[in-house]
Amino acid sequence: MPISSDSPVSPPGDVWSVGEVAASLSLPTSTVRTWERRYGLAPSVRTPGGHRRYDAADLDRMRLMRQLVDQGVAPSEAARTVLRAGRADAPILARTLGGPAPWADEVVAASRRLDANRLRALFQELFEAQGVCTAWDPYVTPLLRRMGEEWASGDLGIESEHLVSEVLLTTLRSRSNRLTTGTQPPVVIMASAEDDQHSLAVVALQAALAENHVEAHVFGQRLPAAALATLVARFQPKAVFLWASMPRPNGDRLHRVVTALSTSTRIVLGGPGWESTSIPQARHARDLSTALAALVAEV
User: Fold this and answer.
1) pTM of the model
2) Are 298 and 265 in contact (CB under 8 A)?
3) What fold, for 18-87?
C-alpha cells in the first residue's frame, strides 16, 4: 500500500535530522528509523557533537525509497534497488521511474504501433532503474496479464503481444550477457521441463542471477530428462532450476531423473506445473524472488 500520496519537500539546511527527513517525506519517524536499522539506509554525516545527519545525497536515496514503496515494491526489494543505485544515481532514478500503470500504458501503446525500439527502451529503463527481480511482480507480471486480457477481448492484436514477448526476451538475454563473462562453467543450470514451451520465467531468472554475479546457463524449452542428467554430470552445477507451466506427473521419466539428482544437487522448481509433484529434496519457488534467493544461497 502507498505510504502517502503527498509530494515530498526538501527540509531546510544542508544536513538534516531523522525527524526533519521524516517530515519532508511525509513519513513517520519510526519508518525512517526502520529503513535505517533493517535495510541499511543510514545517514552518512556525523556532527562534531556525535549526532548522525542526512546530507543531500542521503535525502535523494530516501526519496527514491519512498517512491518505490509507494509504487508497491516491497521495502526489502526497494532498499536493494536504492543501495545498488548508489548515492549519485538516486536523483536520476527518482526522476525517471514511473508507476506500474503509466509504464504499462506506454508499453501497450508502443505495442499497438509495433514500435520495437520504444519497447526496448522501456524495458531497459525499467531494469536499469529497479533490477529484474524488483521490477518483475509490480511491473512485468501485471503488464503481461493485461496484454493477454486485451488480446482475449479483441482489443489488442496477437502481433502486438508477440512483439512485446520477443523484445522482453531479447532485453533480458542482453542484460544477462552484459553482466556475466560467459567464460566460466555455470554454477546454475536452468531449463523448461519436457514438453514445456514457455521460457520467459527462466530467462528472467537468468538475468536476475546475472545481476547478482551468478553465472547460469539456460538450455531452453522442452529439455529432455536424459539431456538434463547429462548436463548435470558434465558441469556438476551447484543448483538446477526447472520451470513447468503444465502439470507434471509423479513417476514419469523427468520425475525419476530429478528425484535422483536431488540427492546430490540443489533442485529448485518453478511454475504451476510442479504443484502436485512430490520431490522431497526439491524446493518449490512460488515466484521469481523466491527462486532467486534459493539459488543465490547455494553459491
Assistant:
1) 0.69
2) no
3) Multidrug-efflux Transporter Regulator; Chain: A; Domain 2 (1.10.1660)
